[in-house]
Amino acid sequence: MSVPDSLRRTPLHAVHVEMGARMVPFAGWDMPVQYTGIVDEHKAVRQSVGVFDISHMGQFIVSGNGAEAFLNRVLTNNIAKLQPGQGQYTLLLNAQGGVIDDLIAYRTSEREFYLVVNASRIDADWQQLESQLTEDDDVLMANASDFTAGLAVQGPKAREVAAAVFGSTDSFPEHNTILVSMTENGPMWLCGTGYTGEEGFEFFMPAETAEGWFRKIVEAVKAAGGMPCGLGARDTLRLEMGYPLNGNDLSEQRTPLQAGLGFFVDLDKGEFTGREALVAQKAAGLPDKLAAFRMTGAAPPPRPHYPVVSGGQVVGEVCSGTQSPSLSAGIGMAYVPLAAAAIGSTIEIEIRGRRFPAEVVKKPFYRRPATS
Amino acid sequence: MSNVPETLRYRDSHEWIDPTQSPSPVGITDHAQAELTDVVFVDPPKVGTQVTAGQQVCVIESVKAASDIYAPVAGEIVAVNDALSGDPGLINREPYTGGWIFKIKPSSEAEFDALLTPEAYTKHIA
To answer: Which residues of chain A have a CB within 8 Å of the CB of B37?
Structure first.
């Protein structure tokens, strides 16, 4: 099968093919969905370590004397709380309070911020940020997405991989922190974040250096008992944590309050895009809410767009849904009326005309076993 | 390379049937299980159902997607593999043995002639 010209390729595309990955279109990119199998890769991340190509994600650098004030005017979380080296999960909203994107914002220095955004939203995010920028803002924005490759190393043995690759664990970033270092090829960003619920780091580097780093990391990952992983495992891992996926669980039609992300919205920090709409929605009451559910008996896995039934009526549809490899049960998320969203509520998922029972549960679906 | 046993017959939609046994077990090929990846659920057909060749009879679900399974030949479904409800991964591990999905009593022996030979199926998946 040939790849349509419209699909973009990461700097690691040829290496994925060489390593036997199965490539599929994702967010406009031709990406590895798996190397050996989704369940094996999923378990590798939970039990040892895995490495993912995340070069399709976008990176913006926002700098200048007015960078903090500007970002606080366009993002929901309070960026002024970040010290240099710290990061936070935050949201970019439209004027109606709808989610344009969810992203991680790092403060790399007093006057510079590094934003990691979703692949499918790079253009929409950039347009939104530009449209909010005024002549008076002392702010410079740079889109580094096209020149930057990214790798995510995730799992209990991520630290071991960092030690093997970087020669020391001094460079292992703590959760929600960023380390920036200059190399002869350009800057390298090492971030203490991930999308799997496991310890690990995300590593962004000049595109031309990606292949060398990837091969080195794959070698270290394999030595630690792990394997390279595709987007299939990334999706089952993030869903077990209840992390939303833009396009499935987040959209410009619903607010972060409906998505259960109110914790990342600081309504008290001052004016920001979408704030008025959120305040009004809070006063009026939410029309629906993103509920996490688990199938309660033997059932086919729930999948996006399957109807959700409550009290005999179709009340919504599945946003994200899959078979959880850790729980061996179907899990998913769906926007449902508040009455049906309470923890413990019984709902049904309609699968090919048949209705299967499910229970609304607390997130995350999966909890990492306590380490002694 | 996918395993394509010599004694079986195949549909281009990747089901196999064993004409040497009566009733004949049906499953999906090694190639198909590898493409589907981890099978997590099998929705079996009803025993006693009369089917025509090419009729959609059940669905198997992998982590990635749901796939329709078609009857390779006309006849009656006389058994389903109960082991798959507890261990759907049998389809991945033993596609031609423990991972059979249902057994069919063909309405006539001639039904098998319309199916792909191992050589033809091997060419089909090449």
So the answer is: 34, 37-39, 232
- pLDDT of A139 over the 50 cut: yes
Is residue A188, in this structure, part of any structural domain at all?
yes
Token pair belonging to B41: 């659920």
What is the span of the domain harbouring residue A236? 13-55+146-240
Select the more confidently predicted residue: A267 or A171.
A267
Please identify, in words, the CATH class of the domain defined by B9-108: mainly beta
Chain B contact residues (CB < 8 Å to A): 37-38, 40-41, 43, 59, 61, 63-64, 66, 85
Question: Is residue A49 one of the residues assigned to a domain?
Answer: yes
Q: Does residue A78 belong to any structural domain of this protein?
A: no
A296 CB neighbour count, 10 Å cutoff: 16
- The CA angle A177-A182-A186, to the nearest 5 degrees, is 110
Residue among A8, A11, A9 at smallest CA distance from A213: A11
Per the structure block, which two tokens stand in for B69? 């399974």
Percent of chain A with pLDDT over 90: 93
CA atoms of A291 and A339, how far apart (whole Å): 11
Q: What is the CATH number of the domain that holds A218?
A: 3.30.1360.120
Is A31 among the domain residues? Answer: yes
Domain boundary among A205, A240, A275: A240
| Å between B123 CA and nearest CA of chain A | 16
CB A194 within 8 A of CB A241: no
CA distance, residue A37 to nearest chain B CA (Å): 6
Place A5 in a pLDDT band, splitting at 50, 70 and 90.
low
Q: Residue A4: pLDDT band by 50, 70, 90 thresholds? A: low
Q: Which of B85, B116, B112 is nearest to B101 (CA)?
A: B85
**Do A157 and A23 sit in the same domain of this protein?**
yes
Q: Which of A39, A235, A320 to mutate to test the interface with B (most CBs of B within 10 A)?
A: A39
pTM (two decimals): 0.92
Q: How many domains does chain A have?
A: 2
